[in-house]
């Protein structure tokens, strides 16, 4: 399931950025007394209790202003509200209800999203003298906090997470393979989906950045159901200028989080770029199965060494995802497009594969015989046994005598032996070390 998104909105200078920085645990947004300092919304990954979510800070809403900067800030905040699962509407509890607050409330009522009305800057245990005035907004019971003094923030977050789905909830459609197409702008993501579907289902344009939203397209083939998610291309942060593109990045990350398989598209003419590494890293870090498609292969002059050379370059540049199969395609002329759906189904099966505990421990025992575990100061690592604890991605726990003795290189060695025995092609593997209760150190 994708992480929920919480947007913090309100008129300028009500303390949104101070609140955001307090929640995020570090100073991210610029905080000044001057209204309108935060012009771009900024986002952070947040954890409260057992929930993880994305919080978006926005510039102040000035609904009536037609000046260029307030208008752009309004557009940004409206985009944030459109994306959000929960909206925190922040007002100034010291100053009281204003005309701007009423105008923002009018926008929120049309949005049809859960809204929590938060009175900030209530720096004492006494209720704000303006508390009951805010009932005029018709949004619900106000929640009083002080971002500056960290008062009431825990109670607010308790209310926020009540609107989140249960974290134990299974995929909404377990029969469908959810596939997210990722990559830099203009590498052919939308064209790929249209080619697979056999029809123009997604807007295709030569202008980079045409696709701004993550678009879900369900379909079936040979009895298997799929949902293809086309995303806006991910640019380097330094290249993100447009307010719409900031949100496209968040949408793309959210799309990766709710997918089973990611297809990373690389432009054959440009090779692997730093941004390709970053995009692949998002898939890897989220534990998603991964396929690498090298597009525009028809435009490359070739000899009998070209494919192997390109493949070696990919393996060198994307060393952290050696498990990902590589397919050389041309979306324009349909070259090898027929290989993509079978590959998706294959890596999805690998992503959800389980290994019996007995068979797994035979592999681990053989691996430790071939290459003895490391030792330190006379203590040698002992691996008592291993077990697979989950899928998506396949995750293994090794019970040991002292996890401090498990060097990362030996853990990688065990992972490689598991891959040699069971393949797990196309999926990352998660390896966890735990000390066996009562085991001798």
Can you describe this structure?
With 441 residues, the chain is an alpha/beta fold. It folds into three domains: 5-161, P-loop containing nucleotide triphosphate hydrolases (Rossmann fold); 176-351, 3-Layer(aba) Sandwich (Rossmann fold), CATH 3.40.50; 357-435, GMP Synthetase, Chain A, domain 3. 31% of the residues lie in helices and 22% in strands. The protein is built from eleven helices and 17 strands. The strands form four sheets. It has a six-stranded mixed β-sheet, with helices on both faces. The longest helix has 16 residues, at 68-83. The two termini are 39 Å apart. Mean pLDDT is 82; it is low at 27-41, 168-173, 202-214 and 235-247. GTPase that plays an essential role in the late steps of ribosome biogenesis. Keywords: GTP-binding, Nucleotide-binding, Repeat, Ribosome biogenesis. Associates with the 50S ribosomal subunit. Residues 4-168, 177-352 form the EngA-type G domain. One of its GO terms (molecular function) is GTP binding.
